[in-house]
Every structure is written in C-alpha cells, then in structure tokens.
Amino acid sequence: MEYFVTVAEERNFTRAAERVHISQSGVSAQIRQLERELGAELFDRSARTVTLTEAGRAALEHARAALAAAGAVSEAVGEVTGLIRGRLTVGMVVGCTIPPLFDAIAAFHRAHPGVEVSLLEGDSDHLVELVRAGGVDLALVGAAADPLEGLGELTIVSERLVAAVPAEHPLAGESRVALRDLLRHPLVAMPRGTGLRTVFEQACAAQGLRPVVALEASAADAIAGLAGRGLGVAVLSHSMAAGYRDRLRAVDIDGAEAPARLALVWRSAHRPAVREWLRYGRQAFSSPGEG
C-alpha cells in the first residue's frame, strides 16, 4: 500500500522508486501483486504520466488511512516511552540552497535516530499538493503573498522581485523599470509551479499583461548564468540577485511589489515527529546570520 500511495502521488514509477529507496522493478512487482489481490488495475499505464483508474481512486484514501493508522501505533508507544519513531518526509523546492533547512534535518536526525527521514525535491505546487494529501509531512516551498489555505506556515523569506541584468544591458543604468517595459525584453525565469514564477505572473495578470519567458531554469545559478551571457533579463528575488552583484545589476520592477515568499508549510503538527521537527526548524531558521 505504501508503494501504491507513492506512485499515485508521484504519478511516475521511477520517481516513486527513488522516493522509497528500492528498484523500479520492485515497486512495479508490488503494485502488480496488490492489483492481483484486489482483482482490479489501480493505474492506467498507457500514457507517459501514470494516472489512477476508477478503482485506484476509490482505494487511495483508504490506503492512506491504513498507513496513517499503522504509523500511529509506533507513535502512540513513542508518546508513552518518550522515544520518537516512525517516518518523516520533508519536501524541498527544486534548487534550494538554504543551509538552515539542512541544519534542522541534521539536528533532528541526531536527536531522534529512530525516525527515518526522507528528503523529497520538487516544484512548489507539487509539494504543496503532497503536503495537503499527506504524502509529505512538511515542505520548504516558494509561495505568493497570500497564506496557503488549510496549512500551517512559517515564512522564512519575504521579498520583492527584481530584474537582474549584466552591465552592458540597456536597463543596467536604471534604478527601476515598469513591468510593461520589462516585458519588451527576453526573460529568464523559474518554471511554472514555483513561487517566484507565480508571483511574477500574478503581477502581470493584474495589469492585463501576458509575459513570454524565453528561457526557464530551476536554479538561481542557471538563471544568473543565462542572463549574464546576454540571453535575457533574469527575474529573481532581491536576495537571489544580490548573490550575483559581481556580474548582474538589480533593477526594481514597478508593478511587481507583492512579495515572493519562501515558507515552511505543514498540514498537521499533531504527529510527534512533525511537532519535534518544527521545533528544530524554528531554531535553525531563527539563528543569527541565517535566512
């Protein structure tokens, strides 16, 4: 059932296998065995993206409930003995290089070696979807200004977007650029599904503008590298652009004042492992000089 739920959440057998740390053939064999036991196919495998069949959709929530109940057994014992056990899955937005997140995971692991910690990387929208579904316990994601409904949040960074260009670019001598004027230039930005891209597209939509992004990359280093070679104007957060001030100049964007946020999100802190990890997370992100 764990493999079934993981494939349903990842919509891909290869990614599911990586997440549960076994071979793809092992995951496929277990799913086939479950399908034989239930007498129905759970997945439609005809397309590149694996989708649930009607039987699969009917089984998914029951499978999640069964896994949650099984996990609750060891957690209940842990509450009595003071020894936290079980599993904890932490999500991390693609391209994340935030040391406090790694510090929190390491500190938690040292204090609670009985908890199996998994780290899952993905785009922000997908990670939020997994947190809501219970497939990920908590995740560090990019988000727009508004809080994510139904989830607990700890905002790590909140800052506005900027355009970043090399010294020879026509915008390099400007301190500000109107959003409409910015769109006259080729753009380099994060892909859809990331917090920065969502904030940027929301700002454009508010003015009836439709941005055309020439190049996409998931990592700030790649975006800065492409912009530095004159392939487009980079759309980054203020602190991201500041990391490349030796080769790029940041220009404020009029009309894109709403901040982009980096936030830690979770569905429920009732589980001891989640509650304890959040304690380490808050300590790590509030440490002087971090964030």
SSE-based structural type: alpha/beta
Major sheet size, sense and barrel closure: 6 strands, mixed
The oligomeric state is single chain
Shape: globular
Number of strands: 13
Strand proportion: 15-25%
pLDDT averaged residue by residue: 88
> Low-confidence parts lasting 5 or more residues at pLDDT below 50?
none
Structure explained in plain terms:
This protein has a 6-stranded mixed β-sheet. The chain has a 5-stranded mixed β-sheet with strand order 4-3-5-13-6, sandwiched between helices. Strands 1-2 form a two-stranded antiparallel sheet. The chain has 291 residues and is of the alpha/beta class. Helices cover 44% and strands 23% of the residues. The radius of gyration is 22 Å and the shape is globular.
Ordered list of secondary-structure elements with their pairings:
Elements: H1 2-10, H2 13-20, H3 24-38, E1 43-44, E2 51-52, H4 54-81, E3 86-93, H5 99-111, E4 115-122, H6 124-133, E5 138-143, E6 152-159, E7 161-165, E8 176-178, H7 179-182, E9 187-189, H8 195-206, E10 213-216, H9 220-228, E11 233-237, H10 238-242, E12 249-254, E13 260-266, H11 272-285
Parallel strand pairs: 3-4, 3-5, 8-12, 9-10, 9-11
Antiparallel strand pairs: 1-2, 5-13, 6-13, 7-11, 7-12
Helix pairs in contact: 1-2, 1-4, 2-3, 5-11
Quick summary of this structure?
This protein has 291 residues and is α/β, with parallel strands linked by helices.
Could you list some keywords that capture this structure?
11 helices; 291 residues; alpha/beta; five-stranded mixed β-sheet; single chain
